[in-house]
């Protein structure tokens, strides 16, 4: 349970990154526009005549100011869409649209409840707000997050739903906005009653944080850095930046909640004399840390590197240090010493908390969009003037941080011989580490190793198909990887078979590679690989790959058991070799029988479990109670029907009895739109001592014995 919660929180944190990513651009527009439309600032720098009201530059900066301000004014709906996109597993665009619909409906429902209960006059002062033109409760980004998480949950559950035939148009992805709209009508009504007490609790937490003084600021800074390796820092700091947890303040006649929102509201208000430190205490601590402290750590790692490796280290660390200084992106440095010397990262977290606390002590009022680098410091500190921001203390404290980080890191690296870049053994690669390296280390290297194996297999398949440039399209059915190539002559069958394929079928420029039920995973990995695959030709030495052993004859051995498989439908039965498809007829996907159905109901051929249902519903994976893996493939090339003509009656993982209905086929539709109705019934994972024996040919009834699997000693 703990791991599951942790995994969900990581996904939530990552989903916050999409709406947060727009803040630097919006902040840049607002910072420049707000600064150069502030008459006090223009007068201070003697720019009033050249750039004051009525001039073209003033008009341009006014547009920039409003363009940036609109983003911060509408963050709730951006978070609703961003979180829904980030948390949705598939069909993310549907989740985004559903989130917008749900957001408007929730706030419209709240607005209706406010009107019904006496209007805004009956509400507490500051309890209501204008949300995209709707009078609603002051929910801030929490409202967007509630919508985003809820819609994502509904989306992931219902985007594949099948409705009865009469309502089928409203099924699958079309159902998601419908259920979201209905759900958030109810949520809006409930929020009218539930949110005021919740809001009161949030404000109480905010007051507690504000009253905790310098100690609370230190704890905030320490936790914000400490959570970065786990990917949970966004979940931690966002409530302080965007909700009442970070405080509330009246700015320009409006009640603003959230530290970052307060700062940018004050930035746009020319009457503000000094930015509120009660808000910027949650932001300004990053500046001395990222502009001065971490570059000092980078210099320490360079100076302690082995002399023969300093040249290689210099470029890497200089780039990482400049990235930290300019943009506030610290992962290249932080994850490097976290990976090789976790104790250094703990010390770094302690100093991070101290940096936030010192900025609070020295009344520094510099806010930020996202990064905490020189760009934000210039826009929201230097450009605003020391009188409004006290930015000079960033430099004073920062110089001290540079010195402390340099000497402390140098001492500890030498004392404990930490393997920072350039101090590795001579045969080790000089590199900086990333979050992926940390995740791989936490997982015992499994993630990296698994990804490596998958990448090798995908690269080999790519090469077997003639390289990335020769591949036009990749798809799959229940058992085959179906690829279209530009030049069929470049396809290497031997190389493809060496990847574990049981056969390769050519149809003009179409290539079908037979892998069995695991093909969907292979297809997904190949598509991921092709996104970043090198354009140059990739070759493999097939001579190093063992050829599959030929099937041994087992009839001369003693039979020790037999399992009987029944026909899943009424029809005409025949040997699998009579199937009108060379892949099935050649037993490349397994052995069994071929039946042309005459009845629309497909029934379980034995007691067992549904192992998978192919997305296009034309095939069902089945495992018998005896452990026999089977495939019920309805028709030939029916994957191209995209689910039309098939109605699934069971779910994946369902336990079934022999004769239970699994699927219903529209026989007329499939017969007229597919090459053949002949349906292979296969055992896909026969062992060397197992052999299929056909029991019935010609007319057969559902439930009648079709073939046996004999097991020999």
UniProtKB/TrEMBL annotation:
PANTHER family found in the cross-reference section: CYTOCHROME C-TYPE SYNTHESIS PROTEIN AND PTS TRANSMEMBRANE COMPONENT, PTS SYSTEM, IIBC COMPONENT
Coiled coil (UniProt feature): none
Record's bilayer topology term: Multi-pass membrane protein
Name assigned to this protein: PTS transporter subunit EIIC
Record-annotated PTS EIIB type-1 domain positions: 455-536
Statement: the UniProt record of this protein carries the keyword Transmembrane helix: yes
SUPFAM superfamilies on file: Duplicated hybrid motif, Glucose permease domain IIB
Principal location: membrane
Keyword line: Cell membrane, Kinase, Membrane, Phosphotransferase system, Sugar transport, Transferase, Transmembrane, Transmembrane helix, Transport
CDD domains reported for this sequence: PTS_IIB_glc (cd00212)
Residue positions of the active site: 477 (phosphocysteine intermediate)
InterPro entries for this protein: Dup_hybrid_motif, Glu_permease_IIB, PTrfase_EIIB_Cys, PTS_EIIA_1_perm, PTS_EIIC, PTS_EIIC_1, PTS_Glucose_EIICBA, PTS_IIB_1
All copies of domain PTS EIIA type-1, residue ranges: 581-685
Annotated TM spans: 12-36, 56-82, 94-116, 136-154, 175-195, 287-305, 335-357, 364-385, 391-413
Subcellular compartments: Cell membrane
PROSITE patterns membership: PTS_EIIA_TYPE_1, PTS_EIIA_TYPE_1_HIS, PTS_EIIB_TYPE_1, PTS_EIIC_TYPE_1
Residue span, PTS EIIC type-1 domain: 3-425
């Amino acid at each position: 349970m703990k791991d599951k919660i942790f995994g969900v929180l990581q996904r939530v944190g990552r989903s916050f990154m999409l709406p947060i990513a727009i803040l630097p651009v919006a902040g840049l527009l607002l910072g420049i526009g707000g600064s150069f439309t502030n008459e006090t600032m223009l007068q201070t720098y003697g720019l009033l005549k050249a750039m004051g009201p009525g001039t073209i530059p003033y008009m341009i900066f006014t547009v920039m100011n409003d363009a940036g301000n609109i983003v911060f004014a509408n963050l709730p709906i951006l978070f609703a869409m961003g979180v829904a996109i980030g948390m949705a597993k598939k069909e993310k665009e549907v989740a985004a649209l559903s989130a917008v619909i749900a957001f408007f409906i929730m706030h419209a429902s709240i607005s209706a409840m406010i009107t019904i209960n006496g209007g805004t006059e009956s509400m507490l002062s500051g309890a209501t707000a204008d949300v995209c033109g709707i009078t609603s409760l002051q929910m801030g980004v929490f409202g967007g997050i509630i919508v985003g998480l809820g819609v994502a949950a509904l989306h992931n559950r219902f985007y594949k739903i099948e409705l009865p035939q009469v309502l089928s148009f409203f099924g699958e992805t079309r159902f998601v906005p419908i259920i979201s709209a209905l759900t958030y009508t109810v949520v809006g009504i409930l929020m009218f009653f539930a949110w005021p007490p919740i809001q009161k609790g949030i404000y109480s937490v905010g007051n507690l944080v504000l009253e905790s003084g310098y100690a609370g600021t230190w704890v905030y800074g320490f936790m914000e850095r400490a959570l970065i390796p786990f990917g949970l820092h966004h979940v931690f700091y966002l409530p302080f930046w965007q909700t009442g947890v970070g405080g509330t303040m009246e700015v320009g006649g409006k009640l603003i909640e959230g530290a970052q929102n307060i700062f940018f509201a004050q930035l746009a208000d020319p009457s503000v004399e000094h930015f509120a430190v009660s808000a910027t205490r949650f932001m300004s601590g990053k500046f001395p840390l990222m502009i001065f402290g971490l570059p000092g750590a980078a210099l320490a790692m360079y100076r302690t590197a082995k002399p023969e490796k300093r040249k290689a280290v210099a470029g890497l660390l200089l780039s990482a240090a400049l990235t930290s200084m300019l943009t506030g992106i610290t992962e290249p440095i932080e994850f490097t010493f976290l990976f090789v010397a976790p104790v250094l990262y703990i010390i770094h977290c302690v100093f991070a908390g101290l940096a936030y606390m010192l900025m609070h002590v020295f009344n520094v009022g510099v806010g930020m969009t996202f990064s905490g680098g020189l760009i934000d410091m210039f826009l929201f500190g230097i450009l605003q003037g020391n009188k409004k921001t006290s930015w000079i203390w960033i430099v004073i404290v920062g110089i001290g941080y540079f010195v402390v980080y340099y000497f402390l890191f140098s001492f500890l690296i030498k004392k404990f011989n930490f393997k920072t870049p350039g101090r590795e053994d001579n045969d080790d690669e000089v590199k900086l580490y990333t979050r992926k390296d940390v995740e791989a280390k936490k997982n015992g290297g499994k993630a990296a190793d698994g990804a490596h194996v998958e990448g090798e297999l995908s690269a080999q398949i790519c090469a077997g198909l003639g390289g990335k440039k020769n591949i036009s399209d990749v798809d799959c059915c229940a058992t085959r990887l179906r690829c279209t190539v530009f030049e069929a002559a470049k396809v290497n069958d031997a190389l493809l078979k060496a990847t574990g394929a049981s056969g390769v079928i050519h149809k003009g420029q179409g290539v079908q590679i037979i892998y069995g039920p695991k093909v969907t995973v292979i297809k997904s990995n190949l598509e991921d690989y092709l996104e970043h695959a090198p354009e140059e030709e990739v070759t493999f030495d097939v001579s190093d790959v063992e050829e599959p052993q030929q099937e041994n004859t087992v009839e001369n051995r003693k039979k020790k058991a037999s399992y009987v498989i029944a026909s899943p439908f009424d029809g005409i039965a025949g040997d699998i070799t009579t199937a009108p498809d060379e892949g099935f007829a050649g037993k490349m996907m397994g052995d069994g029988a071929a039946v042309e159905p005459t009845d629309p109901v497909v029934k379980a051929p034995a007691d067992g479990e549904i192992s998978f249902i192919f997305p296009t519903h034309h095939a069902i994976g089945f495992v018998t109670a005896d452990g026999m893996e089977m495939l019920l493939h309805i028709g030939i090339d029916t994957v191209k029907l995209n689910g039309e003509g098939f109605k699934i009656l069971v779910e994946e993982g369902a336990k079934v009895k022999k004769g239970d209905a699994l699927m219903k086929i529209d026989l007329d539709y499939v017969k007229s739109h597919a090459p053949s109705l002949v349906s292979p019934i296969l055992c896909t994972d026969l062992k060397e001592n197992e052999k299929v024996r056909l029991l019935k040919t010609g007319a057969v009834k559902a439930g009648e014995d079709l073939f046996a699997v004999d097991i020999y000693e």
